[in-house]
Each structure stands twice: as structure tokens, then as C-alpha cells.
Amino acid sequence: MLKIDNLFASVGDEEDTKEIIKGLTLDVPAGEVHAIMGPNGAGKSTLSYVLTGRDGYDVTGGSAELNGEDILEMEPEERAASGLFLSFQYPVEIPGVPVMTFVRTALNAQHKQRGEDEISAAEFLKKAKAVAAQLKLTPEMLRRPVNVGFSGGEKKRLEIFQMMMLEPKFLILDETDSGLDIDALKVVSDGVNALRSPERGMLVITHYQRLLDHIRPDKVHVLADGRIIATGGPELAERLEKEGYDGVLAEAA
């Protein structure tokens, strides 16, 4: 599914370049959910940006493949059409563009990129109503401009709405639990868990073990100074919650 081998990446311009990812190797098979945890500045969000093709992040070595395809050679829209989805830590506002228009346009753009027929208005509306009800999004919220006037929890639920509508092959969740109260965390987690399948992989980036109580990972990786320094099962996240990162960092030194 997602295979990253000895990846190096930097951010900045020619005069001020900083290497953030320093030889990162990671393999997430189809059907599995992997979590990445790590201290601030470890490179967690940078990894998500590099994989999805955000401007300003340069790959200087290594490779990243999704289902055997080199995603680093693709444009961002090609990566999305291939099935890669990023749920942002801080979803952006898009004034003037209604949610339903935005999501249907994105969905049909991906269909076109893959050579598929566009989704009909009736089919799209039926699916949107069902997904919105599951995520407790009201019809009024779907008529509003994307993320404009939404609370933090509403923005995250809207991200999951987009994810469930697009049904990507591989999900990257960048601190999806940030800013969520307990009720919103459960709604968002239920939406994510509804997409777990043998054909789909997920990479969950988080600071806190509480999200992993709801989205149970198959493996947990600790990222520090741009590389994976420890890997284990869900118990590793529980250890980090109790002890912090110092012990794992010392063992890796």
C-alpha cells in the first residue's frame, strides 16, 4: 500500500534550507492503521505535506510509493486521484464556495483524472445526506462556504465528510483530534472507523493516546528528528502517554 524508503526532505529556499525528514522508512500495508507519534518538531506534519505534494517541501532522497506507483513524481491533483487523502490539522476556509459545490467538484475532478464518469446530482445528493447525518452535519452547514464560521470541531467533521464522500485508498490524518471535545472526537472517530477496510490503509498522526482509544492502530511508530526511532503495538502509545518521550528517545540514542 504505502511504502516509504529512506526518505529525506527539506523546507525553505536556497538561502535558508532546513532538513526535516532524515532517512525515514515506513511500510503501511493495505488494511492496516498505523499511528505516528512524536515530540514537537519531529517532522510529523512535514511528512504528510511531502507525501501529498505541498509547495515548499523538497524531497532530496529516497522514495515513496502508493500501490507501487511513485507518488513523488506526481502533481498534487494526481496524488489525490490515485487515492491519497490528507485531513489537515488546521482546515482552511474557502469563502464564497459552498461545501456541496466544493465536494462535488473535487469528486468529479478525481473521476475525470481516473477516466471515470461524473457522479450524477441525484446520486451525489443521496450519498451526501446519508454521510452528513452520520456525522451530525446539518443541511444548513452544507450550504455554507467551506469552513467559514465553523467551530474547530465542525471543521474536523467537515474534513471527515469530505473523506467519506471521496472514499480514498489511503488516508493521512494530521492531528485530527486537535481542538475536539469528547463528543466531537467520538463522531469524527466513528467516521474514520467506518472507512476501515482490507483495501484501505491509514496513517494517523497524533500527539495524544486518547485518539487511539477510538481509532485503534495496528502499529505505533515514534518519529523523532526526522526518522522512525521505535515501533510497537498500541501499548507503545499507552507507554508514551504515561512516561512521555524521554525513555524511548534515550533507548534510541
From TrEMBL:
- Name the keywords, alphabetized: ATP-binding, Nucleotide-binding
Which positions fall inside the ABC transporter domain?
2-250
A Pfam family of the record is ABC_tran
Q: Which InterPro entries does this chain map to?
A: AAA+_ATPase, ABC_transporter-like_ATP-bd, FeS-cluster_ATPase_SufC, P-loop_NTPase
Keyword match Ribonucleoprotein: no
Could you list the residue ranges that cross the membrane? Answer: none
The family assignment reads:
Belongs to the ABC transporter superfamily. Ycf16 family.
Q: Which PANTHER family match?
A: ABC TRANSPORTER I FAMILY MEMBER 6, CHLOROPLASTIC
| Protein name according to UniProt | Fe-S cluster assembly ATPase SufC
Species source reads Ponticaulis profundi
